[in-house]
Amino acid sequence: MATKADRASRSFSKILNVRTSRRTELKDMTAEVEAVVRESGCAEGVCHLYVPHTTAGVLINEGDDPAVARDIEATLDRLIPHRENYEHAEGNSDSHIKTALVGSSEIVPIENGRLALGRWQAIFLAEFDGPRTRELRVKIVPDPPAPTN
C-alpha cells in the first residue's frame, strides 16, 4: 500500500463524477478538488483539471457570491441561445459553442498542500447540455524534489 510520502512524490489522478441538475449550470467543485489534492499528499505542484466532454467545460471565477455564477449562466444563454438557426442536427449546438468559449481544462498551482486560488476564486464544472452525469478529471503533478548537494 502506498504511503503518503510515496503518493506525494508521483502524479495522482482521480475522476470526479458530477451530476448536474439543469441544462445550463455552473457547479462549484472547489471542495471536491481540494479533497483530491489532500488525498494526493502533494505539498507543492500543479493541479490539472480536464472535462472530456464537448458540451461541458471547466472554469475558474468568483465563488463567494453565487449570483456571479447565475449571471454567467444567464449571460451565456442570452448571447448563445438554445433555439437558433444552427446547422447541427442534434439540437445542442449552443452547448458546443459555449464549451468552445469556456474551455475544457484549467491548471491551478498547489502551494503548501492547497490549491493556490485567489481569495474569491472557485472551480466550476460548466454544464451546457444537462442535466447529466459528467466527469471532471483531476491530475496532481508534484514539483520535482529539490536537488541535494
Compressed to H and E, one letter per element, the order equals HEEHEEHHEEEE
* Class computed from helices, strands and strand pairing: alpha+beta
Relevant CATH superfamily: YjbQ-like
CATH hierarchy class name: Mainly Beta
How are the strands of the largest sheet arranged? 1-8-3-5-6
**Number of beta-strand segments:** 8
Number of domains: 1
Poorly predicted ranges (pLDDT <50, ≥5 residues)?
Answer: none
Report on this model:
The chain has 149 residues and is α+β, with helices and mostly antiparallel strands. It has one domain: Sandwich (Jelly Rolls). It has helices at 4-8, 30-40, 66-79, 93-102, and strands at 12-19, 25-28, 45-50, 56-62, 105-111, 114-115, 121-127, 133-142. The relative contact order is 0.34. The model has no long low-confidence stretch (mean pLDDT 94).
